[in-house]
Amino acid sequence: MRNNVSKMILMKELKYRCKNCGTCCSEVPGTIEYPTYKRIPLYPNEADRLIEIAKKSNVSFKIIEDLVFPDEKNQKILVVTWRIRLDNNNKQCAFHIKNGCQVHDVKPLACRAYPLAIKQEDAFNFKISIDPLCKWVIENYDNLYNIDLEQIKKIFPREYIYAQEHLNRNKSIMLKLRELEKANKIKIFRKISNINFNKYLKQWERVEIRV
Ligand code: SF4
Ligand code: SF4
To answer: Is the distance from the beta carbon of residue 170 to the nearest atom of ligand 2 less than 6 Å?
Structure first.
């Protein structure tokens, strides 16, 4: 009983404070058996903006496709998001510097929302979740385990606003894809083998989905 009460008091007081460790801007070390990669997604307009800044400031910033859907009808790969490549020597986002983010004022929604992230539940649905790789989250894991959305809002008030924006943007894109399908302009595979998926990735042109 006493433990529950003290946990409730602690939860009331618990507020996220970034430790500026830079872990979220860095690759996750995996193993050969279980290769992992850190996913920092970018919407196409965010990718354009960061590429432009990188060009002007001579930063070796690179991106790779992230969330994509092969369009059977037009034989195109529809790109919903890109992700930041972290496979450079430092294994970090090229905009990460000693004092933090070099593009702090214009950083992408995923970085603003972090350690909140949006997690894919199935092909077209996403939800807000807490990323377990954040250093502050690891330190407070016992208190954050299984908390509901209302508690998430209280602990991460600023980040929650961006996570919600991130989620809404994602929903708008998914809606756009469904509308395009309804209008018979695209056809997204409901089931596809890995072999075919990889084959189409190699062969088909890219089209970005923007909202
Ligand atoms: S844009 Fe900034 S916050 Fe986002 S990964 Fe790069 S350095 Fe980190
Ligand atoms: S991992 Fe968490 S604590 Fe560390 S810089 Fe990123 S958000 Fe802040």
So the answer is: no
